Amino acid sequence: MGYQATIKKQAVWAIFDIKGNASVVAKRVADIGLSLPSSANTAYAKNGQHLCWIGEDHWLLLAPVEMEFQLLERLDPQNSSLDCRIVHVSDAYTLFTVTGNHADDILAIASPLNTRQQNFPIDGATYTEFFGIRGLVLRWPDGYLTAVERSYADMITAYFDKITTGSR
Amino acid sequence: MTHNPFRQKAGGRIDRNSCVEFEFNGKRYSGYKGDTLASALLANGVFLNARSFKYHRPRGIMGAGVEEPSCLVELLGADAGGNYAATTVQLRPGLKAKSVNCWPSPSFDLMSINQLFARLLPAGFYYKTFMWPNWHLFEPSIRRAAGLAAAPDDQIPYQHFETRYWHGDVLVVGAGSSGLLAALIASRSGARVMIVDDHPLPGGCLRSSQTKIDERPAIEWAEAVCAELDANPEVTRLQDATAWGYREDNLLMVTERSPAETHVFQRGWKARAGRVILATGAIERNLVFANNDLPGVMLASAVQTYYHEFGVIPGRHAMIFTNNSSAYSLAHDLQAGGTMIAGIVDSRPSNAIGAEKDGLDIPLYAANQLQAAHGGKHLRAVTIRAADGSTKRVDCDLLAVSGGWNPAVHLFSQARGTLAYDDALASFVPDKAMQRLACVGAAAGKMNLVSAIADTLSTVTACLSEDNFKPSAFSLPSFTALPDYHLQPLWHVDGMKPGDKAFVDIQNDVTLDDIGLAMREGFDTVEHVKRYTTAGMGIDQGKTGNVNVIGNIAKASNKKPDEIGTTTFRSPFTPVDFGSIAGQRNGATVLPFRHTPITQWNKDRGAVMYEAGARWQRPGYFPINGGNMQDAINAEAEAVRYGVGVYDGSPLGKFDISGRDAAAFIDLLYTNDFADLEIGMGRYGIMLSDDGMILDDGVTFKLAENHYLMSTSTGFADVVFRHMEYLLQIECESWQVWITPVTSQWCNATICGPKARDVLEALGVSIDIGNDAFPFMAMREAIVAGTPARICRVSFTGEVSFEINVWPRHAKAMWRRIMEIGAPFGILPVGSETSHVLRVEKGFLSLGHEVDETADPYDLGMDWIMSRTKTHAIGRRSVDIRRSSGKPRRELVGLMPKTGGELVAEGAPITPNGDRVASEGFVSACVWSVVNKQIIALGLLTDGRARIGETIIIRDRERVIDAVVTKPCFYDPKGERLRG
Questions:
Q1: Which fold has domain B160-282+407-466?
Q2: For residue range A75-100, what is the model confidence (pLDDT) as tens digits?
Q3: Residue A1 lies inside a defined structural domain of this protein
Q4: With contact defined as beta carbons under 8 Å apart, do B667 and B710 qualify?
Q5: Chain A residues with CB inside 8 Å of B741's CB?
Q6: Which residues of chain A are within 8 Å of residue B592 when distances are taken between CB atoms?
Q7: Nearest to A168 among B160, B260, B705 (CB)
């Protein structure tokens, strides 16, 4: 019997790479109704948007693609004169959801991330190794959401096929 | 009905209702479900089933588990694999196995001729013997003769290997009495627990024990514990799984051989726990006497296992030879089972033999030794030597030996723990742990079950408390009375004759004489003895032999074993399939790969795909009907030179760079000036490493004040990113610069060739793309074919080029539209082979070819890019210092090789007069030029620019090729076409 998990490659999401001083960034994201996450490697989630704290003075905003043009307008990524940098990177990532009874098993195959709740809390969001490359992992209802650089999406799909079906 | 002449009518834990057919060395046999290959072979009376590694002596099965040193097999068919101990192979229908290291069969092995020359083949003989004329002349045949199983050729159908991680609080290795108890205590404390055991069934020695725990058979106690563990979702229990490697920070490597998921063949676990409990038990060791390797000589504990677990007694007339109390339980079992026992030879004096002998009605030869075993291909008799030197020959066909028990300290040692010698055990026990682990039970030297259980309870409880768990009160189970373990070490028997083969390491064919020889030749420390003789190496890792080796070194050097010390135990503890380490990283995913949105289109078009740096797969070329690769490249190159072509340039590295100090940062990175770059324009730049060598090149566009888009070479994008991050974090910490990789945010289709502008016009573009409005090296935002795009006028081909950059979500549609609109213009897709031709014609540099971390810009004739107007650029000072020496440098030149149309291998050396002497340069690239209609090349040649017009000589393997040195540009040297 294979793993009971549903793996879905997601359509494009609205994604913005945000760098800069935390206080400046906090003001910018407050404009779209978000707060900064309280600790590193967690995400602040609201209205389907996830603001992930992924590094020192570094955040990644994930939002439904329907919000993309609105966010482009309000975050103004073309404006490099501001005191923080917001870069539109929606197409640079491919997202997958892994859900179901065996979602933890799939993640344990893909990644060394310790997903025990005491180590990876309910609002956890962190970069980790994912099938040998760099991947962002967030908790998701009944499983996980993961984001990898788009160019690796076919490879990640091949891995998912392999581990769920045993194909070689 | 299964015909198993050595199977008892009843008994064992096999399923006698499930007959299993299998094949061994081409013959068919049968066994039962629950058998191992070893137990089934013994039940069938197949005792000669291996040949030794070096001398090709007849060998049989000696052990019953991972300690088996002798009978290694190769599995064939669906689960093909090599060097499995027959004792660890579970019998299954259709199993096919064969012996390793013998031909054509174990009973008639041609290489057994080695036995005739055994006196000439002592340890290290080949180091001394095969010196002349060259060791490598003999090496292949020696390796063939000594090798074990070959790597399997076949893939395993319908299944695959898998690796996965596990994180928890407590990892218990071993599911014997101590391991099960440890797991039980930990699980009841609320810990997340994994328990790993190498046997298909839990219980360890309890499976063969007649002991009662809590007034029921010990194995029932074990089964009840397992049931409780299985009911706890926080417990992972793995049977038929071996923890074979102990890494840093409590990371253990585990191979699970029979996962529940049917699509998984084997699973490799990388398990990390807050605390590791090693309950790995102990391994019985052999005794050293003449011919102690004959088939029919077995470890006493193994005989007991075969009897209790498989209902097999591998002999009719047994003899026991021991130096300790534990072997007596076998005598009791065999006596109760009605097997004829010729006697027990015990090297201990009678007053040292305790209650273990009570109730036995068999001859006991106390203070005697077993001097030699006799037989050809199977044991027939033994010679017993009394203390006074008198001998007696006794017939027997099964000799069970026990030289005492060694705690299985392999994992503890791998964890860098230190070992201490225990006089009472005459073995090494764990001393100081270097990681968060504890040893319990026999692994800790507690050889008595009751003391082992008590020690386990106290140790595990203390560990859990230290780890902030609250272990619940736990009362010790009750046991039936057990005799104490007692031993007197016997490192080898007395009275052996010269030439007797008494093995200390059965698997590696290391004899007592070899140890003596090593020491006589000065290799007298344990590590030297190991390397000289190979004792304790390889698959076996000294499981049954290591302590005997140490004991005999000690005896020979009149030292105590603790003065000798131990060698380092290495992983893997048991042989492991490479597949279980590689896991899902095989086949198509053996290496990472990256695709662009156009990759599938390229594949559908029949492109030959290559890796083109940084794991990107790009089309090499697009084959054409009736033509070869060169025809395809020529067609693509001609399309670009005389018509129009398009290539997918998406993999080029791209970085968004902004911030208050971005302009200064760009100027610091590149050797040329960027300060005067206008918004909307780009500039080619070269960046150097600290040592003044070219690191990368590329075009950087200025998007706004302090906002740039940098492009890098495909293969060096990550290197450049690291370089920039290093500078910002270490050298320019206070600078405000933000770098965001956007390689995958933008895809580009580069239309190039004299008709490129026509195709772009036909696509529909919202801006004026005339040369005045949109000059070379400019970048514009525009709508192309209805899609927002960034268009860059750069050229890597030497022709007019338009890079159309769009978001990847639009890339496929844009590409298809370009091909559709370009069709009337004769547009062709272009692969990387063609790009290579076009750039060589132009003399453009390429990383990995002309730039190999030894070249600076002057070497490539690019003096103009070394700005003298700005204060600093990384690497410039290093260049200046190096060049101030005035020493000759290799310089980029063009070459016209006279090959008659054959390409010259890239990397071919250029040597003075074509002699086999130190080179004066090399060919960095060589192509067929579609514009020059001849072979052209680029190369780096010492003082090359001063030698233009000279004929030099290239050595291409066996060819010697004349080539005329030219300027390194074969096409449009003024660059009029690309600016057109």
A1: FAD/NAD(P)-binding domain (3.50.50)
A2: 988 777 678 999 999 999 999 999 99
A3: no
A4: no
A5: 92
A6: 132-133, 152, 155
A7: B160
